[in-house]
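User: Modeling request: complex.
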Amino acid sequence: MTEAQFVALSPLILVGLAALVVMLAASFKRSNGLALGLTLAGFAASLVSLAWAAKVAPVQVTPLILIDRLALFYLGLVFLTGAAVALLGHGYFEKRAGYRDEFYMLLLMATLGAGVLVATTHFAALFIGLELLTISLYALVGYTRTEPRSLEAGLKYLVLATVSTSFLLFGVALLYAELGTMEFGKMVDLIRQGGHRETLVNGAIALVGIGIGFKLALVPLHMWTPDVYEGAPAPVTAFVATVSKGAMTAVLLRLYLLVGGAIPDSVMTLLSVIAILSMFVGNLLALLQDNVKRILAYSSIAHLGYLLVAFIAGGNFAPEAVTYYLIAYMATSLGTFGMVSVISGREREAEELRDYAGLFWRRPFEAGVFAAMLMSLAGIPLTAGFIGKFYLLAAGVDMGAWVLLGSVVINSALGLFYYLRIVASMYAAETSAKPGAAAREVALLGSATLAALALCLIWLGVFPAGLITLIRSAVLGV
Amino acid sequence: MTSVPMDHGLLLAGLLFAVGLAGVLVRRNILYVLMSLEIMMNSAALAFVVAGARWSQPDGQIVFIFIVTVAAAEVAVGLALVYQMFKRMKTLDADAASLMRG
Amino acid sequence: MILVWLILIPLVGGVVAGFVGSRNVSACRWISLVALALDAALAIGMISQHLGGFQYESSKVWFEEFRASWIPVLGISVHLGLDGLSSLMVLLTLFLGIIGVGASWSEIQERAGFFHFNFLWIIAGVLGVFLALDLFLFFFFWEIMLVPMYFLIGIWGHENRQYAAVKFFIFTQASGLLMLLSILALVFVHRAGTGTLTFDYSELLGTQMLPAVATWIMLGFFIAFTVKLPAFPFHPWLPDAHTEAPTAGSIVLAGILLKTGAYGLLRFTVPLFPEAARSFAPVAMTLGVIGIIYAALMAFSQSDLKRLVAYTSVSHMGFVLLGIYSFNEFALQGVVMQMICHGLSAGAQFMLVGALYERIHTRDMGKMGGLWTTAPAFGVAGMFFAMASLGLPGLGNFIAEFLILVGSFQASVPATTIAALGLVGATVYSLWFMRGAFFGPNERGWTIVDLNARELVLIAAFVIGLVWLGVYPQPVLNAVAPVVQSLEKMTQPVTAALLRS
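Assistant: Request completed. Predicted assembly structure:
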């Protein structure tokens, strides 16, 4: 391993190291605060090392991993999100009994897995990253083991995710059998040259698609989302909604950039149908829910549908649009689920709609931030969500994808119904909410994280130019 | 020694995959579901070995080792969850343990 | 820079009022009032320099302009501009804003801080809409004014406020997205022609495109603006929103928010797509005429006073649509007059109804009657604005509707004839309003407190405004003359053909 390769890999190494340190520290002193401190130090160190790695990028580290600007950008995104989840988790688990340091270790492992995913150029590494992420997530989803719903969610996730991983693996195996390589770039070239058994290759790609679609929770592979989101502890839900989907989107983006938009029409049609279904199913089912976590789960299905629109539309704007939308979506999801964890009480989570009644007047700061997050999900100006939606529509209009755009418009209106339902219940008069959902103590770290997120969202909504430039340099550098 | 044609190997892997998938879908006992998952993972692993043999590359076998390792980790977490579930709900039936709907 | 201050003052004032409001309610009212008064003083000071006399130099299109880079990578800038049309709209906005704060002085007791925050942000958003010359910025403000309005209706509204607020929000949001699609389509068509990506209004003017493309893009703008206006098929949100909103909300909705729709048609739809607009004129005029008659009939059948006034708004806005698509100087001048006069008369009517509701806690005409005897000043004020609404000569609304009809007569005789029937309808519903509320027997035995000093001052301001516009409308007509003339020129067949070649 040359020095440049070592430097390039340092962000990933540091996060892995942090996981080990947290685990070792637990054997000396079990403390929520200490574990959080070590975790944050680990994330901070890797974020700093990104700048270091940027100087040598792009570097191919073994055939498995490519550290280029795209990878570095997404690594930064994933690590920042991981750190935010750690901060949110601190207050959340502080309120609950039992040890908490495993949470941080698992979180670091999962983030490491996501980090491998965004930097991979080889299916073997993709598999390792994916499993590192997913296996940590099983444990995280089922983390509050005294809560039956959490266990159930963990098991459900385990079964369904393993099935989807098996599909992915089997698809990769078939591709490998036909093409003789597992590197993304070579595979794309070989498929383009032709001379293979078309049906086998297409079938294999479909199997891989199932694996990716499952992670992104696109219809019809979305079934797990509401249950897992509901059952998992709120900070973990935030992680599932952001890091896990974000990393998979990065993989998709990398493949998309390699393919260079030369995707057959039949696949495009299929993807369009999936996107439209995801939007409609997500939004329509969200309308029927009374549980805030489930509403947000269905809304995230719809949002991934929107994201897919940018991919399908293609054109010059697509990579930027996807990335900007993803960042807006990640920041917002982190904020909304973070809010659920911050205002949740000791006995149970604030997940029913009526737990939010009168929040505006009880806790104006949190309610204001939550409302801002929901407005961002709805794509209202002054928030990053608006710029994201603007980008999405721009990509669509640029390529004249009118059917997709029509469904985006209809679905935006549908989405408003349930976002406004939450907002409306926050300023409604306080009714007889079930006890136990309201947090008595203020989670200082969590609230500060949320405030920072809200500021970030508004900043990105009003002054997006800086981020756009950054994204351009990242995506066009590939 | 005549080698087995690749497609036969893939076919076998595909059959195993189908058996595993059917098991996941049909079985209600969570332990059997975990076993079926193992079969699915391992069928993919077998396919990798077969594919690696075609190109006489070690890659297929390396991925095989990855898969076996990962599957072990998965089962470890899975059994821990099953144990906790059994402790609290006194059942291994996936339907009986299902609380969330909608 | 002064244009930026115009928008910033209410924004900042709103934040300050919001913070102060939780501790001291009356302070936050004063802060809002001072912020708006300061803004108004600034606006008047600036505008009077340009509109001082009968004449002003017509070499410049914009009196004031402000330009700053915002998102250069996407060709988006903060571009604000003020001309005669937007001057008038800015003045109207600030006038009604001040009235709105005054009208809610005693009505809003709960959460006054948040109320004033929202109210001032609506004003800021509307000012932004009237000043923006970058299409992205315009859309930005267009959407920004919705959110506080949603809260205003949803929190301080009447019984059915939730339903009304959501309906309002979704109608305007969905149509807004259509407009965003159109904006993007226009920008990309422009880029395809010139190679530059820009959202700037002045650069997008005169973009070359195929007629079919132009028609589709124009429709996006047209729908967004006619939802806001509102014109006939897109009006269902309005009666609910107006009825359920608190008084200040209704004043701002009827007085200003509806005008943003008309403003959008005048500023964007017609100038950006003159040819498409011209070929679309018959449809638009028909919608306008249907709106006039339909809403007049609906108004007549209401028993809820606020709903009645709301439907009269739809009817009056039908005249605006009719006038805009007549494309001649008379009609267009009438349109601007109508925008201002309706803002005043409808605002005043909502204020009166609101004041009445505060006293008797009902808006049902069936439960009123005979109020004239117990509150004569109320009755006189009601009578005055009913007369204004039906178009009594001597008041601004008469000039406005007369000019529109004169203009539209040249464009379409049948449309004008039917629209004129709307005036008859206006007479009927205005008198219905008076009879139901103020005349007849006082069966319920109401004894109510007459208008107090604060309300009298506000009413007097409306009265003076309407009489002034009715007797001496020349300043308004002068102010918009250049805008109107260029619109007229733009839409004449000859010029349109020239533009194409």
